[in-house]
Design brief:
With 430 residues, the chain is mainly beta. The protein contains 3 helices and 29 strands.
Amino acid sequence: MDSSVSLVIYSLSVLINILHKSIVDARLLNLDIPAPAPSPISCEVETSGTTFNVVDYGAYGDGQTDDSGAFLKAWAAACGASGVTPSFIVPSGKTFFLKPIDFAGPCKAPNIIVQIQGNIVAPNTFDGWTGCKSNSWISFTDMQGLKLNGSGRLDGQGSLWWNASNLPTQVPCLPSTALQFASCQGLQVKGINSINSPKNHISISDSDNADISNIHLQAPENSPNTDGIDIARSSHIYVHDSIIATGDDCMAINGGSSFINVTRVTCGPGHGISVGSLGAKGASETVNDVHVFNCTFTGTKNGARIKTWPGGSGYATNITFESIIIDNVENPIIIDQHYCNGQPLKCPGDPSQVKVTNVIYRSFNGTSASKIAIKLDCSEKVSCNNLEFDDINFIPAPSVDHVQAYCNNAIGMIDSPSVPSLDCLKSSIV
C-alpha cells in the first residue's frame, strides 16, 4: 500500500479514538452533551399484527354457540387497524353459527381482506333470526377495497323459509339475502360457496368496480326466490368462472346497473341470466351495457332473458349475449315485456314503456326443451328495436318435435340464417 494512503488511514483512526474518549470523559464529568434525537412518535395505534382470527376474540366454532359477538369484536379490531392491509380470518376446521350480522365500514386501512376458510351456518329456527336491519344474513356495507375469499361454505338454512305455509304469523325477519354487499367500491369476491339461501344468495347494490369469481351457489331447483347474484344500482361489475345452480335467476341485472360483464358462468338449474325485471309498480328503471359471454345453460327455465313489467318505464339498451351453449332449456332466448312474476291477473293494465333497444344475440347453439326456442314478446307501446341475430342454431330436445320463433312487436335484423327461422322479425316499423 502507498505510504501516503497508510498515513491518512492511521490519522483518521487516531482522530476517531480521541473524539470517542472526549465524549465519554465529558459524560463522566456531567458536561452538557446533547443526546441523539428520538425517533418520531406515530399518531397511529399499533396493533399486535395484521391478522384478526375470530377464535382469538372468543368464537367457539362448534356450530351451535352464537359466535356473532366474537365476529363483531374481531371485525372492530380489523376494521380499526391502519397501515398494512388487515386480514379478518374465519379459520378452517370449524363451523361458526351466526345470527344476522352487519360488517360496517368504512375501515381505516385502504383495503381489508376477509378470509372464510371455515363454514358458517345461519339460524335454523325463526327465533334465531333477529336484528335483520338490512334484510340480509351477512352484510358488508360502506367498504373500500374489500377482498373476500376462501373455500369456506355459507349455509343459509333456507328450507326454514321456502314453504310459506310454515311461516308463523309474526316473524322477526323476512326471508333474507345470504350475503349482501352495499356501497362497496373495489370489491373482490373469490372462491366462496353458498348453499340454501333463504332468498337470493348474493346481492350487490350501490357499488362500483367489483370482481366476482370462482364462486359456487347452490339451492334446490324448487326453492323459491333463491337467485344466485342480484345486481342493482351498480356499475363495472365482472362476474366470471363460476357455477350457479338455484331455484330462480342465476343472475338478475336490475335497475340502475351498467357495464356488467358475465363470462364463463355455468347456470342450471334456475331461471337463466336476466336483465330485469324492470318497471315493477310503475317504476322507471334503466340498464345499459351488459355483456354475457361464453356461458352455459343446462336444464334451466330460461337462457338469455330480458323481462319488464307492464306499467313501467325506462330502458334496457346495449346488451349482448354471445357464445352461449344451451342444453335442454325451455326458453333459450326470451324477451318478456308482459312479465308479471307468474301472476297475470295482478298485472297492471298499461303496456310496458321500458324501451328494449340495441340487443345482440350471437353464436347460440344447443337444444330447446320447448317448441318456442326464440320468444320476442315486446310491448305494444314501444316495441323492441334494433335487435340483431347472428349464428343462432337450436335443435329440439328429445321431448320436442320441432322448434320455432315467436315475435310480437319485435324489430331487428338477421346477420346469418337462423334455426329456427326468424321470419317473424320485422325489419322496419309497419
